[in-house]
Specification:
139 residues, Arc Repressor Mutant, subunit A, globular
Length: 139
């Protein structure tokens, strides 16, 4: 019935992928979006929330909620900048640094797993096409 519906099929795929990613990141007590945000902060300590929002393609309010949660769970800290006390930079904690390598490896394992299921080249093409579709729709 919905074989040609972009909305239905993209959401069905997202739910399936989310289930798989959620299971893998459960070992860290993190949801996939929280894990991605933490991975970005670990790779780029000192980022500003607006940079995280741009990098992760999320609203600032969503980023703020994620930061609140990750800070509460002692994975990151917010520090006011020297120039403007209202502006904050985000830094990983020792707890986050301790799981950095395993967190990144989990992401790599998921990519390898999807490559085995779909084919490595096909996976790269699918992701590339999805990014192009997103850009075209946003115009």
């Amino acid at each position: 019935m919905f074989e040609q519906c972009l909305y239905f099929n993209s959401n069905a795929l997202a739910r399936t992928v989310t289930r798989i990613w959620t299971e893998k990141y459960r070992q860290f007590n993190l949801s996939p979006p929280h894990a991605f945000l933490l991975r970005v902060v670990l790779a780029n300590p000192g980022m500003f929330p607006r940079e995280l929002a741009d990098e992760l393609n999320l609203n600032r309010s969503t980023i703020t909620r994620f930061l609140d949660s990750l800070e509460k769970n002692e994975f990151l800290i917010r520090q006011a900048t020297e120039n403007d006390g209202r502006e904050v930079q985000i830094f990983p904690t020792k707890k986050a640094k301790k799981i950095h390598k395993k967190l990144d490896n989990t992401g790599k394992e998921l990519t390898i797993m999807m490559g085995k299921i779909l084919g490595k080249d096909e996976l790269l093409e699918i992701v590339s096409n999805m990014r192009e579709v997103k850009k075209a729709i946003e115009k």
